[in-house]
Amino acid sequence: MCSLLSLLGQLFLTHILCWDQPHKGVFSRPKAYYGTVEQQGWMTLHLHILIWIQGSLSPKEIRERLMSDDTYLEGSHIGEFLTGTKDKLRTMIPRETIDKGSSDADWSGAGYINLTLSMPIAPPQISKLYAWHHQFQLTVDDLLLKSNVHSCQDKNGRCSARFPKSIVPYTMVDPMDGHVIMKKLESSINTVTPAVTYTNRCNTDTTSLQLGTGIKATVGYVCDYLTKASLKTHQIFSTIKLGCA
C-alpha cells in the first residue's frame, strides 16, 4: 500500500502538478508544495498536499476579477458533476445497492467496467479529442458518484461531515466581508478537480485557499500529522511485531 501511494504521489507531482517540468500543470505553474500522509484507523492511507502557485493573485485581486465576471477561479475545481445531476447519473450507471450501509454498493451490469479498478485513457490525436473529452466527463461523473457522494448519516439523520452543503448557483463575493463564495451545484459532494479524479480513480477533493485564516487552519491540520506524539494501539502492536520478527 505504501509503495502504491508513493507511486501515485510521484505521478501526481509529475503529470498533474507538473513539478520541475517545462510546461504548466492543471493548476498552472507550481511554486512549491508540501504534503503528508495520514494513516486512518482502518489502516488506509490518505494524502494531504498544499500547493503554492506562481503568480497567484491576492484575495483583493481575486475579488476584483470576480466582480468583473472573470470565471478563471472556477477552472481550478468544481462542485458538481460534469454530465448531469446526481439523480440522473444514478439512472445511467448500473448499480445494485447492498443494504449494509448508505455508502456500500455492488456495481454490476452487462459490459460495464468498474472505473475505480481500471487505468485512465490517454487523450488521442486532436481530431478525436472531442469524443475523448466526452468520455472523460462520463468517467469523472461515474467516479464522483461512486467515491465522493456523502451519505454517512447517523441514526438521527445527521452527517458527521456536515452534509448536505448549501448550493451556490454562481461564484460571488460577500459584500460584507469580501469572502469569495465558490459556485457549487451539488450539495452532497466536496469541490473536486476533474483531472485529479480521472487520474487517481478514488475519492479526492480540491479547495482553493484564499483567506489567511483558512490557510493557517489547513497548514496546521496537515502539519499536525507530523507532530503527533502518541501512537494508536494497532500501530504499537504492529511496531512490536516488526521488531520481534
UniProtKB/TrEMBL annotation:
Q: Which domain of life is it from?
A: Eukaryota
* Name of the molecule in the record: Helitron helicase-like domain-containing protein
**Higher taxonomy:** Eukaryota, Fungi, Dikarya, Basidiomycota, Agaricomycotina
Q: Which UniProt keywords apply?
A: Signal
Name its species.
Answer: Coprinopsis marcescibilis
Q: Which residues form the signal peptide?
A: 1-18
